Amino acid sequence: MKRTVYMAAVLMAAVLFSGCSTTAQAETSAKTEVSEAVNRLEAIKERGYMEVVMEPYLAPYEFIDPSKKGDEMYVGADVELAKYIADQLGVECRIIPLDFATVLSSITEGKYDMAISGLAYTPARAEAMEMSKGYFYGSEENLYGIILGEELSEKIRSKEDLKELTVVVQSGSIQELFAAELPEGCGELKRVSATTDGYLMVQEGKADVCITAIKPAELYIEANPDCGLCISPYIDFEVDEELQGSRICMEKGETELLNAVNDIIDGVLESGIYEEWYEEYSELAASLGV
Known about the structure:
By secondary structure, this protein is α/β, with parallel strands linked by helices. The chain has helices spanning 2-27, 30-35, 40-47, 77-89, 100-108, 123-128, 174-180, 195-203, 214-223, 255-271, 273-288; strands at 49-54, 63-64, 74-75, 92-97, 114-120, 129-131, 144-149, 167-170, 189-192, 209-213, 229-236, 246-251.
């Protein structure tokens, strides 16, 4: 309950402190800007800023630092990447916080310039939008698994053991694809807009397990040592090689912007700077308890 209240307070702070700037951003359609230029890359450079959508509840990629105000409250490795790309393009970076499903739809509809939100490759996403090269691959051998209550950890040793249990997953995520692979007869499937909401559902007894990326789950448990949750050592989900790596998404057909972003990602990969951001914000997230 304490965690739920904290998240509500943070969200309210985001609305209050963002003020007119966020409202103005929401009212300004990047789509309209593009119609007056040859392509979105040109439009970004003409207007002098780019709008990046993300769901700010996935530490250490993107999350909220409640000690800061306005756009500065959005922090994380992906936020640094967004700012880096904007700097390379010679423009300002504006962060637009949205729920995860709206992050995806806003890009397919061309409302904003790009989405940087820990997005994995899927064939459906690649068909609906442009997806960049991977910019971060992580080092964990098993990138996806389940988080569950400690009392269930030794009882759930295979996916078959999930029968008659309630499974929660973030809507629109790659984890939702894994849920579709569960054996027939597994229990109820619930969907939430944010992965942390899934953790809270398990913690509060509203679901039995949450399918999740391993690293954010580890950070959540580390930041909330009394949550009573753990990561199952027995269940993981295999990820196809083509699904590896976090990607940046743009409206379909914006190949000029895609090529520019891919060139910048080449430099990011060569320098190793994203890994530095990842470690920096992993430490910050742990200190904030998010």
